Amino acid sequence: MEQDGRIRWLKFSSPRHFYHLVDRVIPWAWWVAGIALVVGLTIGFLIAPADYQQGNSYRIMFIHVPAAWMSMFIYLLIAGYAFIHLVWRVKMADVMAISLAPTGAIFAFLSLWTGALWGRPTWGAYWVWDARLTSSLLLLLLYLGYMALHAAIPDRQRAGRAASLVALVGVVNVPIIYFSVHWWNTLHQGASITLTAAPTMAGTMFAALVAMTVACWAYTIAVVLTRAQAETLERERGALWAAQLADPPHTRQEADKEHV
Amino acid sequence: MRHPLLALLRRDLALFLRRRQDLITLLGFFLIALALFPLGISPEPELLRLIAPGAVWIAALFATVLSLERLFTDDLNDGTLEQLLLCGQPLALVVLIRLLAHWLLTGLPLVLLAPLIGLQFSLTLQETVVLALALLPGTLTLTLLGGIGAGLTAGLRGSGGLVTLLLLPLYVPVLIVGTTAIAAAMAQGEAQPYLLLLAAMLAAALPLAPWATAAALRITLD
Question: Which H or E run contains A7?
């Protein structure tokens, strides 16, 4: 892996090396996700105090906030990989981008869903046309558009490049959409409801939030890399290493002996 | 008309003009969509004035998306698009010419319909002028952004729904600013800042969108 004291990063853009590296990373990611989840939920539900205003309903933020963060960050990651894919024609960048998309969409959906559940007792409505809610909804639609285009084009190479272009166009537009939506909301109904005015948090609440964020990160890494592995195998099914992975030579020899 | 790009503009305009039924379909769609709002909500003039800005822009959004289907498909099917790719002119400029020709025959008619919309929704003269002034840069921006979606989905079966899903999130800023401009005029406020914002969006889309559309066509024809 190392030569002249430097890691040769490009080595992992080869599907085969990527596959084997990822194979070693995934179990670790699952462990980290599991432990952080248990720690986060324990602190969040058992140790952190109830909020003086919102009572216990605030506790949904321990999944809501990390989900919202992940949904935004994953879109940026997709755009980054899309850029690498279009500019340097690195095939694995497209594998990573398309593997990230469903997880990002799920987090976007989760942030809306948990937000609705929190909004009902707190604001008295599952949904209000608040700027943040609206921009989260639009983010979910950007994810859906990206995945729909990738799925709609039969040729995989073309699908990957077209979807990458859409991701880049989307990321250029995200700030414009974000600011126009914020501006629209403040014009129409004033800043009566904002999520930004969060009360300063108790230390345990913060600890639970950090743990849950770590859990979401590690979960994303594990799931996305697993998906990327499957995608790699499917694309490389003609390659020798992939064939050997499915059907290792030593078992084949034994099978041949049995036939004889 | 000696310059190749001017010749291209003339060709595109001639082609679009000869498909008059497309124009009639589009205008018909726009008008019936707008007529459905009073029918579906209420004929009350005060209420209609309230929903007019949003109704007009939503109808314009969908009319634009609807018109995009023909933008590249014909040229893709008969091979003209490949020739354009190889003709030696910068593809982004070729695309820009095509988008301008398309807008002249799909977007501009919507702008010219503004007086009719004003009558339908009982707008004053001044509000109608603001409406037209907002639609002018707004529809052009919509067409320019639409080129990207049309370029990516050209030749795909059942691309209509896909284009809608891809484009409508990108259209949200134009919708918001365009609606606010008319609403501001109705509230006796200053519409100029919003019109300038629409012009700013056009100024951003004008160089960037044809470039992205050219990249999209290169991917489609790869």
Answer: strand A6-7
- Comparing alpha-carbon positions, the chain B residue that sits nearest to A140 is B169
Q: What is the interface pTM, i.e. ipTM, of the complex?
A: 0.90
Q: Token pair of A21, please? A: 């590296």
Q: What is the mean pLDDT of chain A?
A: 84
Whole-model pTM? 0.88
pLDDT at A258 over 60: no
pLDDT digits (tens, 9 = 90+) for A218-232: 999 999 999 999 999
Q: Under an 8 A CB cutoff, do B172 and A142 touch?
A: no
Count of domains observed in chain A: 1
Chain centroid to CA A182: 24
Query: Touching check for B50 and chain A: CB below 8 Å?
Result: no
- CA A225 – CA A222 distance, rounded (Å): 5
The total of other beta-carbon atoms located within 10 Å of residue B21's CB is 9
As for how many domains chain B has, the answer is 1
Look up the domain containing A75 and give its range: 20-191+202-259
Chain A: residue nearest B180 by CA? A184
Residue B177 in contact with partner chain A when CB distance is under 8 A:
yes
